[in-house]
Amino acid sequence: MKIVSNKSNLQVLHEDNHLIVVNKRVGDIVQGDKTGDKPLSDVVKEFIKDKYNKPGEVFLGVVHRLDRPTTGIVVFARTSKALTRMNELFSNRETQKTYWCIVKNKPSNTEDKLVHFLKRNEKNNTSKAHLKEVPDSKLASLDYKIIKELNNYFALEINLHTGRHHQIRAQLSAIGSPIKGDLKYGFDRSNPDGGIHLHARKLVFVHPVTKENIEIIAPTPDDVIWNAV
């Protein structure tokens, strides 16, 4: 059964006067879109409003997004100053993002750097990874390593060097190791909850206001395969 976030079950990983960081569930949508489903940003606003008895509108800035079927760390800004500075950190690649994922087909190398040129297809909302540059493509690179071999699957740790649309999903699919549950990128069957086994596991950055080093780790979803990792 899929459980989306609400103000009562929100998984808060870090909170201060300027930021709130939550652990996104499968199905949570970070920001409103054409589906009309309630976005995580609204849930977090309700959480803050309730917790602090805030009258009127709560300010909350969306710093970055995660795909709807993925899980893990999402950062929101509670002040406009924090939003501006966090946006700069993300756009200047001054954050360190680590993802975990589960694949069925073992990559040919235990660890490797993948470099592709990704071309986005707006019509079906996918990105295709090419080995050589093609028109309208963008350079994408990441490092991966196998961190655990399970019975039928392999757990990988991913460090991103660029932040492209569906980057991890497209690049792993291109080497023949699509993520578990990811029908869009070549996995053979969906997960029961409609999600995929891709999790934003760790984020390291310098706090935009206090300047302290922040390291956030998000627990993986509670399912048999993640629990084995």
From TrEMBL:
Coiled coil: none
EC primary class: isomerase
Keywords: Isomerase
Gene Ontology terms, MF aspect: isomerase activity
UniProt superkingdom: Bacteria
EC number annotated for this UniProt entry: 5.4.99.-
Keyword Isomerase: yes
InterPro entries named in the record: PsdUridine_synth_cat_dom_sf, PsdUridine_synth_RluA-like_CS, PsdUridine_synth_RsuA/RluA, RluA_PseudoU_synthase
UniProt-recorded name of the protein: RluA family pseudouridine synthase
Originating species: Flavobacterium algoritolerans
